[in-house]
Specification:
By secondary structure, the protein is α/β, with parallel strands linked by helices. The chain has a single domain (4-316), classed as Arginase, Chain A, CATH 3.40.800.10. It has eleven helices and eight strands. It has helices at residues 24-34, 39-42, 67-86, 100-111, 143-148, 162-172, 196-204, 212-218, 220-230, 265-277, 299-316; strands at residues 4-10, 45-48, 89-95, 117-122, 186-189, 208-210, 236-242, 281-287. An eight-stranded parallel β-sheet has the order 2-1-3-8-7-4-5-6, sandwiched between helices. Strand 5 (186-189), helix 7 (196-204) and strand 6 form a beta-alpha-beta unit. The longest helix has 20 residues, at 67-86. The chain is globular.
Length: 317
C-alpha cells in the first residue's frame, strides 16, 4: 500500500542534555546525498522552528529544562502534523532530541481524536520520567509520560517549580486531548537503561518491553507478530526509532546517550521494514543522531539512513 509521504524536519535539541542532536537530520541528509539518493528533494518537506537559541540562555525550570520553548516547538509541530495527516499524509519525521516525539504523537491524535493510537518505542531508554521523578531535568527523558498524561507521583522525588508544573500541564494537554495513548498501548523494544521510577511505572501498568535478549531468542518476526497482537485493538500505530536502541559498540557513539548491548542494525532494519508494511502504521520518526559525538565520522547517520532507505521502500510499495 503506497503512502502519501511527507517529510518533517524538527531540529530542536532543547530537551537533550548534550549538544549536537540538532545536526542529526542534516547528518542523515548528508548520508543520503553521499548515497546518491534524491529522497529529500522528492517529497514535500515541512521544517519546524527549533527555538534552539534558548540554549544560549539560563532556564528557570530546573526539573524540566527549557520546557517553555519545548512546548512552543511541540505545539507548532503537532498542528502541522495534524494538518498533513488530516489530508491523508504519512509523516516521516526526522527530529533532533526525543522530546519532539510528544509533539508528533499529539499531532496524530489531533488528526484522529476518536481513534486508538498504539506506540512502538524502539529506544535504549523508557523516556517515562516526569518533572516529579527526573534525575536530570532533561525533557527528552519524558515524552512517553507526556502522551500518557502521567505524573508518576507514586515515585515523586522532586518538588518542581510552579512554572515547571504549569508548562508540564500545557505539554500534556497539547491539542486539548489527554491522554493521547493508553499505558497498555505502548510497546518498548530494546529499552535497557532506566531508573527506578520508570521501572516501577512500567511494572505498575504491566508495560511490555522486548529486551534485546528476547528479540534475539524469539527472532524479529515473532516479536513483530506479538507487537501486533498486543496492539490489536489500536486503530493506528506510531513508530519511534531512537538510534541509541542500537548497540553503540557495533555502530558508533554518535548519539546523546549511547548504551551498550543494543540491537544490531540488521535487526532494527527488519523490524522497521515489517512495521512500515503494516497498514495501521501512520507515522515513523527517527531521532537522536548526534554527529558531534560520532567517533566514526558520520557512521551513526549513515546507518540510520540505510535503515530509513529500506523502510521508505516498503512505504512506497
Amino acid at each position: 500500500m503506497s503512502r502519501d509521504n511527507h517529510i518533517f524536519i524538527i531540529k530542536s535539541e532543547l530537551g537533550a542534555g548534550t549538544r549536537g542532536a540538532s545536526m542529526g537530520p542534516d547528518a542523515i541528509k548528508v548520508a543520503a546525498r553521499n548515497d546518491q539518493s534524491q529522497f529529500f528533494g522528492s517529497l514535500p518537506v515541512t521544517e519546524i522552528n527549533d527555538m534552539n537559541d534558548l540554549l544560549d540562555e539560563d532556564t528557570p525550570y530546573p526539573q524540566a529544562k527549557r520546557i517553555d520553548g519545548i512546548f512552543d516547538v511541540l505545539d507548532i509541530a503537532a498542528q502541522e502534523i495534524s494538518e498533513v495527516v488530516s489530508q491523508g499524509g504519512f509523516p516521516i519525521v526526522f527530529s533532533g532530541d526525543h522530546s519532539v516525539a510528544a509533539g508528533t504523537i499529539s499531532g496524530l491524535k489531533m488528526a484522529h481524536p476518536s481513534k486508538r493510537l498504539g506506540v512502538v518505542w524502539i529506544d535504549a531508554h523508557g523516556d517515562l520520567h516526569t518533572p516529579y521523578t527526573t534525575p536530570s531535568g532533561n525533557v527528552h527523558g519524558m515524552p512517553v509520560s507526556v502522551v500518557l498524561a502521567e505524573d508518576n507521583l507514586e515515585c515523586q522525588r522532586n518538588q518542581p517549580t510552579e512554572g515547571s508544573k504549569e508548562y508540564w500541564e500545557k505539554l500534556k494537554n497539547i491539542g486539548g486531548i489527554q491522554p493521547k495513548v493508553l499505558h497498555s498501548d505502548v510497546i518498548f523494544v530494546s529499552v535497557r537503561d532506566t531508573e527506578k521510577p520508570e521501572d516501577e511505572l512500567m511494572a505498575r501498568h504491566q508495560m511490555k518491553n522486548y529486551q534485546v535478549a528476547e528479540v534475539r531468542e524469539k527472532g524479529v518476526r515473532r516479536v513483530y507478530d506479538e507487537i501486533l497482537d498486543r496492539l490489536n485493538d489500536c486503530d493506528l500505530i506510531y513508530v519511534s526509532f531512537d538510534v541509541d536502541s542500537m548497540d553503540c559498540d557495533v555502530v558508533s557513539h554518535g548519539t546523546g546517550t549511547p548504551v551498550k548491548d543494543g540491537l544490531f542494525p540488521e535487526e532494527t532494519k527488519e523490524l522497521l521494514n515489517l512495521l512500515a508494511k503494516n497498514e495501521k502504521t501512520c507515522c515513523i520518526e527517527v531521532v537522536e543522531v548526534n554527529p558531534c559525538l560520532d567517533e566514526k565520522t558520520n557512521k551513526m547517520a549513515e546507518t540510520a539512513w540505510d535503515i530509513c532507505k529500506s523502510f521508505i521502500k516498503e512505504l512506497e510499495n
